[in-house]
Write a structure and sequence with these properties.
The structure is a homodimer of 210-residue chains. Chain A has 210 residues and is mostly helical. Chain A folds into two domains: 55 residues, Orthogonal Bundle (Multidrug-efflux Transporter Regulator, Chain: A, Domain 2), CATH 1.10.1660; 134 residues, no CATH class. Chain A contains nine helices and two strands, in the order H-H-E-E-H-H-H-H-H-H-H. In chain A, strands 1-2 form a two-stranded antiparallel ribbon. The longest helix of chain A is centred in the last third of the chain and has 34 residues. The radius of gyration of chain A is 21 Å and the shape is elongated. The termini of chain A are far apart. Chains A and B meet through helix 3, helix 5, helix 7, helix 8 and helix 9 of A and helix 3, helix 5, helix 7, helix 8 and helix 9 of B. Chains A, B: This is MerR family transcriptional regulator. Chains A, B: InterPro entries: DNA-bd_dom_put_sf, MerR-type_HTH_dom, MerR_fam.
Chain lengths: 210, 210
């Protein structure tokens, strides 16, 4: 199909498609004449994935490029790709006071050790967690992490089991890796929305309107 | 304190502090001379909250302004403020095909009815969930929502209970509302990081390295 048709099918404008090609997110179409290229269903599928990661997952174009590089490298064994796909999605934030950060790191270390999670301490999500715990301390809610810790951990262990079951039911390896990426990024959006709804339900029950 | 001291304590630059004042996120300091203002600990606390919502929560300046307006209105009964604080944080995304969106809405409605969650169908998080489920369908993972639904719901019910317990232990109402905002936004960051770590742990156990 031509780029106009690809744009119509996906709702992504032609200049944006060209931008993704320039940034290496989307392969260039097959040239059919010096100034015309043809795009396939694979382009369409990839483009939908890019949009979902950006629109719903809130990833930057640079982060999407990194995630797709991991998806496209067939040399990686499954568990490494799973690790990498999760890794690239980690938020990097927080540049606050070093003392609070070291205290937060101690809390996170103790938490990981107590739960017995097999996680490399250099995993970027460890750093994200340390950043979030540091931010909580700086706004005077340093105890939140300690108070909700094990309830959250129980919950995410259940979520991770469901996520891995979902991924395990996918057949082809390229589908599998894509599933991990989609499940991780869009799963976050699903969970955040569901958590807000569960808050509403729980507060209405605890504080019934007059 | 002067604005320079406020900047030093919080790590937020003076022009950024002035920008927050212009945008209505932060109250202006008390004028002590025609071109000098004095800031209090309350300013410092509010500024830390603003930075946490932006840096760790990923909220826009406009979204922070809406959340803070809800925090600052003492006329709202607790359960409405809880609802509003969660509400304002909802992500608004997705503008895709109407057919897929209506199908996703049907799935979300059926899910809410089955779980018996007391949630107004006009709650913005319902729309966020519909958007995320629509995006999943468009990338060929429409079954993810159905497959992980009840495991996710069990998990977020546990999380919501822990969150409400945390909030319930706070004493003053203004602290309570601030706790909800902080817990919701920073809690999302904590949960996303923990979910990635739980993924790593679960994949290493299921697919052990050779």
């Amino acid at each position: 199909m031509r780029i106009g048709e690809l744009s119509r099918r996906t709702g992504v404008s032609v200049p944006t498609i060209k931008y993704y090609v320039r940034e290496g997110l989307l392969q260039a179409g097959q040239l059919t004449s010096p100034n015309q290229a043809s795009y396939s269903e694979l382009h369409e599928r990839r483009l939908r994935l890019i949009r979902a990661l950006i629109d719903v997952g809130g990833l930057s174009v640079a982060a999407v490029a990194e995630v797709l590089a991991a998806v496209d490298d067939p040399a990686r064994p499954v568990h490494r790709v799973l690790g990498t796909a999760s890794t690239r999605i980690a938020v990097e934030r927080g540049d606050d006071g070093e003392g609070e950060k070291e205290a937060a790191r101690g809390e996170v270390e103790a938490f990981l050790a107590r739960r017995g999670w097999c996680v490399d301490r250099s995993h970027p999500a460890v750093e994200s967690l340390v950043g979030a715990v540091t931010a909580l301390a700086r706004v005077g809610h340093g105890s939140l992490f300690a108070e909700v810790l094990d309830d959250y951990a129980d919950a995410v262990e259940g979520i991770a089991r469901a996520d891995l079951d979902y991924v395990g039911r996918r057949v082809a390896v390229e589908d599998l890796v894509e599933s991990v990426v989609i499940g991780t990024v869009l799963g976050d959006a699903v969970l955040a929305a569901m958590r807000r709804l569960a808050h509403v339900d729980a507060s209405v029950r605890r504080f019934p309107p007059a």
